[in-house]
Amino acid sequence: MLNIVLVEPEIPMNTGNIARTCAATRSRLHLVRPLGFDISDRAVKRAGLDYWHMVDLRVYDSIEDLFHKNEITDLWLATTKAPQDYAQAQFRDGCWLFFGKETAGLPLWFRQAHPDRCLRIPMRPEARSLNLANSVAVLTYEALRQLGFPQLCGEGDRKAAPSSLAEF
After folding, report:
1. pTM exceeds 0.85, yes or no
2. Res. 166: pLDDT tops 70
3. Which of 37, 116, 154, 156 has its CA 20 to 30 A from that of 61?
4. Range 105-111 contact pairs with CB under 8 angstroms and sequence separation of 24 or more
5. What ranges in the chain are assigned the alpha helix state H?
6. E strand intervals along the chain
């Protein structure tokens, strides 16, 4: 299982969309306060309304609180300021993917504490960044691809994907 951490998220629709990604991928969602919204706010729930019951959600008062309550040894920090891109990372089951707030990213002190664990998503230089929900999806699915998409489509009681267009 992957652990997706949003540090001080500000936009409820982003968090709702990320919750939907977590539900669809069996990833655990960790939110670090302060939040820019109430998690019961209908804007958050509207983005993933029929998925909220599938989200394993944990909320913390600070990054320190998160580390105090969890054993975090394999972590990756998403930042536009990283020297290495995400394709260079080797993700493992149970790893923690950290994402910062929409307007400022992850705190500088946190990035400086883990410089070799900072990853970026390649993009053109004049683009500031991707939307937070899109960034989470990119890294989540790359990690899951490396892990062989455990417990996702094609396993369990889901039908196997059609082998040709004629089977649709």
Report:
1. yes
2. no
3. 116
4. 105/79, 105/80, 105/81, 105/129, 106/7, 106/77, 106/78, 106/79, 107/7, 107/63, 110/7, 110/63, 110/77, 111/77, 111/79, 111/81
5. 12-25, 42-47, 63-69, 108-113, 132-146
6. 3-7, 28-32, 56-60, 75-78, 84-85, 96-99, 118-120
